[in-house]
Amino acid sequence: MNNEEEPQRITLVDENGNEELYDILFTFDSEDFHKSYILVYPTGSNDDEEVDIQAFALPEGDDPTDPQGGDLQSIETDEEWDMVESVLNTLVDTDDSTDEKD
């Protein structure tokens, strides 16, 4: 029996108008910036390959999985990027230490 959940997915439109499907890695709130953030990666990526993780700010009260939801916002400041990278690095470090115990 497979206990893995199907990942939540969203569709992003690139600068050329092409729609691409992304899996949601996770979302989190920042009290420092009073925003929520979402990290996504391309659907279909293998576990053993390096993936391009993208991060966005969520409009207040927006549900990224709602097809009628608003647009994701670009992260504009270096301070926000530093915070997002720190959260991601913490997640990666936690996953690595969990994997080692299995």
Automatic annotation (TrEMBL):
Q: Which InterPro entries does this UniProt record tie to the protein?
A: UPF0473 (IPR009711)
Q: Which domain of life is it from?
A: Bacteria
PANTHER family tied to this protein: UPF0473 PROTEIN CBO2561/CLC_2432 (PTHR40066), UPF0473 PROTEIN CBO2561_CLC_2432 (PTHR40066:SF1)
The protein's matches in HAMAP family, at most eight in alphabetical order, are given as:
UPF0473
- Similarity comment: family membership: Belongs to the UPF0473 family.
The protein, known as: UPF0473 protein D7I45_04360
Give the organism, scientific name: Apilactobacillus bombintestini
